[in-house]
Design goal:
Layout: H1 2-7, H2 17-20, H3 25-31, E1 45-46, H4 62-74, H5 87-97, E2 109-112, H6 114-126, E3 132-137, H7 142-150, E4 153-160, E5 166-167, H8 169-175, E6 180-186, H9 198-211, E7 215-218, E8 243-248, E9 261-266, H10 273-283, H11 291-303, H12 306-328, E10 333-336, E11 343-348, H13 359-370, E12 372-373, E13 375-376, E14 385-389, H14 394-411
Parallel strand pairs: 1-12, 3-4, 3-6, 6-7, 7-8
Antiparallel strand pairs: 2-9, 4-5, 8-9, 10-11, 11-14, 13-14
Helix pairs in contact: 4-11, 5-11, 6-7, 6-10, 12-14
This protein binds pyridoxal-5'-phosphate.
């Protein structure tokens, strides 16, 4: 009997150390939030996930959908593309991002499975255990997740809320050492909604040039900027500093599930020759991005009109303004007006509340009592802030802010 039982067992299979040290800060914080005590009388309003398609009010452009339908029906794009991507699609990206100061060709573009994959390739090609990269704080959690996996250090530089989330340049400079391999910037930014002016981008370039470091520029929100701000790819401002710019279709074209991103290699004086080879080699790991979306890319870029992009932008700008306006009238909250993207960061003045101890506590109680889900700032390294994704339709936003306002009034300390 004992022997029989032993036969049915199997020794435990070990997972690799690199897989087990891979951690996603959003998951870790969100998993600590208990959704079981949610107020069942109020339908849930999720303002938590950075996916513009959640509510169905922001839809992909008809021309983009048509382009994918056509290549699918043609049966001409069912095979393996080249690992770095189809040349026509890479040309389309090169053309879109070329300027007279930085002309690009298909050879400067590598297509990837979303911008996340582009970030992974850029970090993998530059880093290894013992090395570090400088990343923004507050910032997009994936940067650290990828570094954890590689076994390299993600070193956080501070962004300053009082300076519209520009980089604390002194702090950035102080973190550089002989093991630093790159400076990663995110502009326009998630979660802050910051858009850097030309002068600030030049200051960052200056630091990179002196330290002889390449820049990884996460520019997935390129062009998603509100009136009065300019969306400037950092590579367009330097003839010297090498830049790996990453982007993709996800946010600007409202199709995150299509999984198409890119790396644009802005090489200066052949500084990136070996990096380019490394990136090409790494791209073979997954044999290239989705063939249908790649094949449709030239028509997506050509046929989706500027007026469609402008109408999406008008809508996001209205949602941003409305969010800021409502939030700035709530006791105990300090929103920072975004200059672009789909996010607004809101400061919590914990001392003004009777029983709110932290951003996690705020998010948990708001969810329990009002069924409104926002992400605590700690997901992004920002204690006592929370992030709102303002993509929801206006009536949903209005309802969410009505509930949030009542919540704040209920929990705020009454003046003696
Ligand atoms: C959404 C997002 C990405 C990832 O984009 P995908 O193309 O969906 O992988 C990368 N960086 C930032 C800052 C983002 O917000």
């Amino acid at each position: 009997m004992e022997n029989e039982k032993k036969k049915d067992t199997f020794p435990r299979i070990q997972a690799s150390a690199s897989s087990l040290r891979t951690s996603n800060p959003i998951r870790e914080v969100v998993d600590r939030i208990d959704t079981s005590q949610m107020n069942k009388n109020k339908p849930m309003i999720p303002l938590s996930i950075g996916d513009p398609t959640v509510f169905g009010n922001l839809n992909a452009c008809e021309e983009a959908i048509q382009a994918v339908v056509e290549v699918t029906k043609s049966c001409q794009a069912n095979g393996y593309p080249k690992a770095v991507g189809m040349v026509e699609a890479r040309s389309a990206v090169a053309q879109e991002f070329s300027t007279c100061h930085c002309p690009l060709t298909a050879a400067d573009v590598i297509l990837t499975s979303g911008c996340s994959h582009a970030l992974q390739l850029c970090l993998e090609v530059l880093l290894e255990p013992g090395k570090n990269v400088l990343i923004p704080n507050p910032g997009f959690p994936l940067y650290k997740t990828i570094c954890d996996y590689i076994g390299a250090e993600a070193r956080s530089y501070a962004l300053l809320p009082e300076k519209e989330w520009q980089i604390d340049l002194e702090h950035l400079r102080s973190l550089i050492d002989s093991n630093t391999k790159a400076i990663l910037i995110n502009n326009p930014s998630n979660p802050c909604g910051a858009v850097y002016p030309e002068s600030h981008l030049k200051e960052i370039l200056e630091i990179a040039q002196v330290a002889k470091l390449p820049i990884i520029a996460d520019e997935i929100y390129h062009q998603i900027v509100f009136p009065g701000n300019e969306s400037i790819p950092i590579a367009s401002l330097s003839q010297v500093v090498p830049v790996l710019s990453v982007g993709g279709l996800a946010k600007r074209f409202l199709v995150p599930g299509w999984r198409l991103g890119w790396i644009i290699i802005h090489d200066r004086h052949n500084a990136l020759a070996q990096v380019r080879e490394g990136l090409e080699r790494l791209s073979t790991l997954i044999m290239g991005a989705n063939s249908l979306v790649q094949a449709a890319l030239p028509n997506i870029m050509k046929n989706v009109s500027n007026s469609w992009h402008l109408s999406v932008l008008r809508s996001l700008h209205m949602q941003a303004n409305y969010s800021y306006e409502r939030l700035s009238h709530m006791v105990g909250l300090e929103p920072v007006m975004p200059q672009g993207s789909m996010y607004i960061m809101v400061g919590i003045q914990v001392t003004k509340f009777v029983d709110i101890e932290s951003d996690i506590d705020f998010s948990q109680k708001l969810l329990n009592e009002e069924s409104v889900f926002v992400l605590p700032g700690q997901c992004f390294g920002a204690k006592n802030y929370f992030r709102i994704v303002f993509c929801a339709p206006m009536d949903k936003l209005a309802e969410a802010y009505n509930r949030m306002s009542e919540f704040c009034t209920r929990h705020v300390r009454t003046v003696q």
